[in-house]
Structures are given as C-alpha cells and as structure tokens.
Specification:
By secondary structure, the protein is of the alpha/beta class. Helix content is 38%, strand content 17%.
Length: 341
C-alpha cells in the first residue's frame, strides 16, 4: 500500500493499521519533504531525534535515478530553476531536502546561525535596558512572556516562558512568580509590548492605568487586520537575523515554531502564519520584544536604483515614492534630449 503522505495522513494510518495487521500487509509511505513540520517530518525524523523508528527509512536523491533520459530532464529542470530563481522548489522536490521549504518564512541556515550555544536563560538582568513582550493566549495557543536586551549591537533573548490554558489574571498578580510586576523587579525593563487583543483587554487597561511604558501591538489577528504592521515587524526581524544581529539560546519550542512558520503569497497580500495544528506564540513574542531595538537601527529600507539601470523596473505600477518618480523624470528628460538632438 503506497500513500502520498500529507498533513492528515496520521489519521488515515490509524484506520488502515487494523487491515494491515489482519492481512499481514505492508505500508509504504512516500512523500516529498515539505519543510520541518508535519506528520511525515516527525515520522521520517531526518535529524535522528529519536533512537528507534517505526519504519525503515529510505532517502532518495534524484541522481540515484537509473533512467538516463529522466536524469537528463531533471538536469534541465535544475538549469531552468537557476535561471528562474526557483531553486528552493528544486531542492525540495528533487534533492529531497527537509531544510528547504518553498513556504518557509525563515531560512533554516539563518535559524541555526541565530542560536548561540554560549547563551542561557537569565532569570534576572540589570546590566542593560530590556524589553518585555506579552503575547496573550487564546483558545488553542499559549500565553508567552519574552525578555530581550541589546549588547554590542546584538539583540539577545534573555528569557522566555509560555503556558497553555493560562489564567491571564495572574499576569498582574504580585504573588505569581512571572507576573509583570515581578518581571519589572528582575529586569531593567524600558519597553513593554503587548498584544492588543480581546484576551488582553483587562490586563492592558490595568497596565495603562498604572503607568507602565506600554506599547500595544495588534499582532494576534495581523493576518486580517493591520496586516502591514505585522508583516513589517516580521520582515525587519528576518533582516536583522540574516545580518547576525539576533541571537537566542537553544529554546526548543521557539526553534520549532520558527522552522514551521509559513509565508503564504496571495494575489494581493502576503500572509505570515503558523501551519495547521501548529503554534506561533513564542516567535510572535520574540519578534515583538525585538522591535524596539530593531527600530533603534532605523528602518530596513530599499536600495536606490541607479538611473542607468532603472528601465527594466519601470513596468512596476506599485511603486510611487519620490525617488522613483525622480528616476522616471530623469529618463524622460534624457529621451526628450536625445530626440531633439
């Protein structure tokens, strides 16, 4: 029995297993890797997280193909992928790489580069100004608290905590170990960023009334409301991560969420979202807590295109900033001058 393995195949296998046992059959699961998430990733366990495995695992690279004509066609696809900028798709489909995902928001190499093995969670910190991000839990998500600071131009995660089915009232209860008042005692917090959602309304109101340095951010429903602000925060964070300006300890839950986060390109907008059945509470908190320090560096802007190279970009109707209009005027003037000459 051969199954093209999708995200819901686990349920299908539970139904088929009794028939397999009764008929002494075999189950063969075949799939192309789809990033570091989902049932097939956990079942195949490419990084040998588990000592024992339920199935014999076989990993086929396209060069193992015995059909010479098919290998030639694949080589042609490879060359075409390089020209069209779709190597991610080729790496996933033909090189069977779990570390490459067409929909992954973060590059696997960037995530790994951000892990600093010398860092550990700091229970308290007064050496430099800190930020605290509060991501409120909802029906199937956790409440998370993230503390970050900046040292020698590197934004560091000092501490992170999360819990499902959490009583939000405890966040302002002084007797709770990780309440916001307690965290202000343990860390030199200059920035407090919270999720501006219904679940956090009472806590946010109390924080405002008591004079905390609060900045509310509409993060939890950013895929529908305030999409641009959430995406901007994530893209700025990714840019800082790529530049080596973001470092964090090896927090397993955070790393899993980062590797599973998806960038879904739609007709008009781009949505950054968790996979079905996944979570994004810790990475949301990580991004929110990084925002004040990233903003200190200024916006991550685009490079100025030289006028001589601007012609091929003029077909883009979505750009209307002053610099671009200036380039267009410059080119039009050159055209008119050439015609008059």
């Amino acid at each position: 029995m051969c199954i093209g393995c999708g995200l819901t195949v686990g349920r299908l296998l539970k139904v088929l297993m009794p028939a397999k046992i009764l008929n002494q059959g075999k189950i063969i699961i075949v799939s192309t890797p789809a990033g570091q998430r989902g049932y097939f990733f956990e079942l195949f366990d490419p990084f040998d997280k588990y000592e024992n495995h339920e199935y014999h695992r076989f990993w086929f690279h396209w060069k193992q193909c015995e059909d010479l004509a098919q290998k030639r066609q694949i080589r042609q696809r490879y060359e075409m992928s390089k020209k069209t900028g779709t190597l991610k798709n080729f790496e996933q489909e033909y090189n069977a790489k779990f570390t490459v995902d067409e929909e992954a928001f973060f590059e696997d190499a960037d995530i790994v580069k951000g892990i600093d093995p010398t860092l550990a969670l700091e229970y308290s910190w007064k050496k430099s100004p800190c930020s605290l991000a509060v991501d409120y839990g909802q029906t199937k998500s956790a409440t998370t608290l993230t503390v970050k600071t900046k040292l020698k131009n590197v934004i560091i995660t000092l501490w992170q905590w999360g819990a499902f089915d959490f009583d939000e009232n405890l966040l302002m209860e002084p007797s709770f170990e990780h309440s916001i008042p307690k965290l202000f005692e343990r860390y030199d917090i200059k920035y407090l960023i919270t999720d501006d959602c219904a679940q956090g309304y009472r806590t946010n109101k109390q924080l405002e009334d008591e004079g905390y340095p609060l900045r509310k951010f509409y993060f939890s429903r950013g895929t529908q409301l305030n999409l641009g602000e959430k995406n901007k925060a994530y893209y700025n964070y990714r840019g800082a991560l790529r530049k080596g300006q973001i470092k964090y300890p090896d927090i397993r839950e955070l790393i899993v969420e980062m590797k599973a986060l998806m960038e879904i390109r739609m007709k008009v907008t781009t949505s950054i979202q968790k996979p079905v059945g996944g979570t994004d509470d810790r990475i949301d908190g990580e991004v929110m807590a990084s925002m004040p320090f990233i903003e200190e560096e200024g916006d991550f802007g685009a490079e100025l295109v030289f006028p001589a190279k601007a012609k091929k970009y003029l077909g883009n109707p979505a750009r209307h900033d002053e610099q671009w209009d200036g380039i267009q005027d410059f080119i039009e003037e050159k055209k008119e001058a050439k015609q008059q000459w």
